[in-house]
Write a structure and sequence with these properties.
3 helices; 135 residues; globular; 38% strand; 20% helix; 2,3-Dihydroxybiphenyl 1,2-Dioxygenase, domain 1; four-stranded mixed beta sheet; 8 strands; alpha/beta
Length: 135
């Protein structure tokens, strides 16, 4: 058993794809036409970190209730955790891609961490191993 996908509600597909692929370095796994349950057109868009089993379904908001959830899917908490093997390199690449970090990198018992927000405003931890050198 494994967790295959999680959904993140986004404002618009193409800008979300660009963010996850260009800024975070994820792979675009699928971008296919699809239909809503009531037959309206939508897209099935999946991105995934390289070498990862779990992907993210980028779901464009459909209706006011979903629009209100954009950027607040974890009620203001850090809700997503991206573990990398080379923290310094990932942090530098993300900053160069225009990523906005809410915190400076710091070392905790579980490793290095810095909080960033995605294109929709959701909060993420960038996590690295504890033995990595700080920037």
């Amino acid at each position: 058993m494994h967790l295959e996908l999680i959904a993140i509600i986004v404002e618009e597909y193409d800008s979300a794809i660009e963010f996850f692929v260009e800024a975070l370095g994820f792979d675009l796994i699928e971008d296919s036409p699809s239909l809503t349950n009531d037959g309206r057109p939508k897209r099935w868009v999946v991105v995934r970190p390289p070498n990862s089993a779990t992907g993210i379904l980028l779901a464009q908001a459909d209706g006011e209730k979903q629009r209100l959830a954009i950027g607040d899917q974890a009620a203001g908490r850090v809700g997503f955790f991206l573990r990398v093997t080379d923290f310094a390199a990932a942090y530098r690449r993300m900053v160069e891609a225009g990523m906005k970090f809410e915190t400076e990198p710091r070392t905790e018992t579980y490793g290095q961490v810095a909080v960033f927000t995605d294109i929709s405003g959701n909060r993420w931890d960038l996590l690295g191993p504890p033995e990595s050198a700080l920037l």
